[in-house]
Amino acid sequence: MSPALGLAAAILASYLAGSFPTSILVGKLCFGRDIREEGSGNAGGTNAFRVFGWKAGLAVVAVDVGKGLVAALLLSRLGSSSGLPRELLRLLAGSAAVAGHVWTVFAGFRGGKGVATAAGALAAIALWPFACAALVFALVLGLGGIVSLASLAAALAFPLSLFALALAGGPSSPLLLGFSCLLALLVFYTHRANIGRLRRGEEQGFERLRVLGRLLDRLRSRAPGGPRP
Q: Which of 38, 42, 81, 113 is buried most, with the most CB atoms less than 10 Å from its CB?
């Protein structure tokens, strides 16, 4: 396989893998409903949680994360004949998978917001910065129960953790830092409606996911002088 053809195959295969319309198929095959016509109308994991319940939502998120992992770890190898660095190949394949998830060819280019698929790709490329971003996601979600806010915070945390790692004298990758900044911009773009609702105080959350928030509420209510139930 020629270098150019191998690179094209890696990108196309990754895009098609990312395009797999997980939540749409789960909705139609398991519930006989189109997720794009319910809830927020978004074909992603958060709306699957909201519309179909936590079991279906968890399955959707797991598959969407897997799409990014498969693209970055496996499908990127199709472009090895191109001679490009492995990190760049993984970034290109991961980016193609995220693009496929957001603009899926199998559902009229109307997909999800790309967070889960991007998480899978970044976990394959830079595990420790990904772990930092995942921790930020969990903390914000646990405090407020709002997935969109947690996603935005995690999108910022990944490049910030890379920058902090470089300042501390650890291994640095300008390529990965630039990519993560562009990815953060994409996440903010796909969440632009959510940002509007957050600013107006209208964004809906999941109370059962607000574990840390409820714990803090209980601690404050028991503190001397605190509010009483």
A: 113
* Sequence ranges of the domains in the chain: 1-121, 126-229
- At residue 19, what are phi and psi to the nearest 5 degrees? -75, -10
> How far apart are alpha carbons 214 and 216 in whole angstroms?
5
pTM (2 d.p.) = 0.88
Q: Tell me how far apart the alpha carbons of residues 94 and 122 are, in angstroms, rounded to a whole number.
A: 8
Distances (CA, A) of 215 to 72, 141, 227, 229: 38, 13, 14, 14
pLDDT tens for 85-136 read 999 999 999 999 999 999 999 999 989 999 999 999 999 999 999 999 999 9
pLDDT over 90, % of the chain: 80
**Nearest-angstrom CA–CA distance, 93 and 99:** 10
